[in-house]
Amino acid sequence: MVQIAVLGYGTVGSGVVEVLNTNQESINKKAGEEINIKYVLDLRDFPGDPIQEKIVHDADVILNDKEIRVVVEVMGGVEPAYTFVKRALLAGKSVCTSNKELVAKHGPELLEIAREKNINFLFEASCGGGIPIIRPLNSSLTADEIDEITGILNGTTNYILTKMSKEGLEFDDVLKDAQEKGYAERNPEADVEGYDACRKIAILSSLAFGNNVDFEEIYTEGITRITAQDILYANEMHMAVKLLASSRKVNDQFYAMVAPFLMDDSHPLYSVNGVFNAIFVHGNVLGDAMFYGSGAGKLPTASAVVADVVDAVKHLNRTVMTFWSSRKLSLSSIENAERRFFLRIPVVKLSEAQALFPGSEVVRVAELPEECALVSDQMSEKAFEEKAQKLGGVISRIRLV
Amino acid sequence: MVQIAVLGYGTVGSGVVEVLNTNQESINKKAGEEINIKYVLDLRDFPGDPIQEKIVHDADVILNDKEIRVVVEVMGGVEPAYTFVKRALLAGKSVCTSNKELVAKHGPELLEIAREKNINFLFEASCGGGIPIIRPLNSSLTADEIDEITGILNGTTNYILTKMSKEGLEFDDVLKDAQEKGYAERNPEADVEGYDACRKIAILSSLAFGNNVDFEEIYTEGITRITAQDILYANEMHMAVKLLASSRKVNDQFYAMVAPFLMDDSHPLYSVNGVFNAIFVHGNVLGDAMFYGSGAGKLPTASAVVADVVDAVKHLNRTVMTFWSSRKLSLSSIENAERRFFLRIPVVKLSEAQALFPGSEVVRVAELPEECALVSDQMSEKAFEEKAQKLGGVISRIRLV
Asked: Which of A:30-49 have CB within 8 Å of B?
């Protein structure tokens, strides 16, 4: 029997307990050992809940118990999670976490400790919820050099954009609806400003490229400026607006960014709607691949955490995780990244705009007679910004995939 | 340095050599060892090709060489692949194969030998080409009880159906085009009759459910009877026809089948077009997930084979593969499977048909005034067939997902 402890009995923590109970028999069979939850750490008590007898309020009880071999950290946030996780690893306990803030900030250090101790620091649930992506990147795509990872990594924003697109609603109205349905937090900033997706793409890029991508260096733009009018144009062009978190290797330069993009139906991410997430990966021999599923939610996230627990139990004294180095990966300025741009302008500016953006396509929607839009040729971010500034009066601009 | 040998220098075999050369540095780093191809077995010679110096015509050279630790089998077909693979495993050499016929027919026996010898028998490339699915099923989805796997597992048929759908062409014409483009074999039977997909779903089902699914017991129907007229109706209903290979667990009954199905755009497989493959998986806690990518082709398939080689090299004396038992999984007759059915009938039969299929929806397309179609309510295969026979004159019928 392998004793484990769960830090945090919130949404994901209670999901982990539920999944371990529901699929107990098959999980133990796959792990090759009986897995038993000995403690659950939480500040609260849960009288009447069978979990109450396992609740402890003091992390030391867990960290000092030599019987505990695997610690599940599902508290979220950097502290005190970081302190507890580091102490657990130093005490020779493997750690499985869903905590993207922790992994994005301290991943290389915690991986290094796990490697020194011949144990595991696993974080499948930190990116893409239930979607298997960390393990496939590490152990399936090993024949490839990955040159692109582009994901829809945040379910809240994808729900909002999908609903804006299908129902023609404004951002604020859909956000309110999403908050009422529990798909968005009362403080939605981390989701709608792209911060959540930014941490996730930092983790995925670090794994794919082998060196540490600092999430604070990733250019990040949220969806708060996307309007119902932008969506009218998108629908007219048979395109969708998606918040993409993307990193690319182009001629030994690395680019990473989070921003809304327009894409057409030839891209596999086009049809990823609602709260679903998906991660598109391009390898130099594999070509295109995509991983799709529930990016959040109690049980899908718990499914990924428990899969990590199974892996940790199967490899109690052996590090399975491919490493990513603490050496910093230098990101190139996105100024040099080349792409096409969509921009809306007052109709009186059209001929001036066409002179500045030769070869661009004009898009009109009947509902907005006073304005029009252009889709530019391929150009650098820098060149686009300079021209747009020179033109003036730009109503909005969105990048194209 | 780890010495390996490649059995077969055809499309996939030459791809394996190419991938190992192209990404040599990163592959060796991930494997933790330098991987060297010592021999390539082929009946032919390749004068002028650098591979010539490694070509051997006698499998014994490889099987008797104690230096060879990993054998790549990419010959295809059951024999002599089976004999060579079994001898390699018995000699303590791990085997990585892309050979679905071999795995579907002898998987449990070969896995058992690998386990006894503490080596590995790996077959990521046997299902879904470059798409990572075997390893995710085995090591990522371990918290779940899988209750459905449904895949578009054959690129040839998906290419044909996509082209029929977009261009309104007949099956025979598209098949001819596909043969000219190299997307279909000159003898296309294994693809268009569903035999290829059948072997792949047998392997995936055996892994997901833990017991051996005999591919010969899987109900298999190809796409040769799908016509341009069927596609007219599908387009009218905003649906797509896809050849699906599917297995489900419903109330402890297991169902497996390969057949064309109609699906609408709410299903993640709907937008998988052309030669791409995708595998949809439903777990009891994960919910829906999907894995998408190139299901065939030289380099994508080689990418999966080489990823297996990396895994085999990382685990030279340790079996990593979850096992599937040789105990036979009893499949229930699809007679009892319940679903909706699309059926085309002469328009004169409509009222009779509506009496037999109460609650069904009527579909008409302008191009076919003499006929009409019904979409039935949910009913068993058996009940449908009985009613359709009683009605008589059915022009075609397609299942709905």
From this structure: 30-31
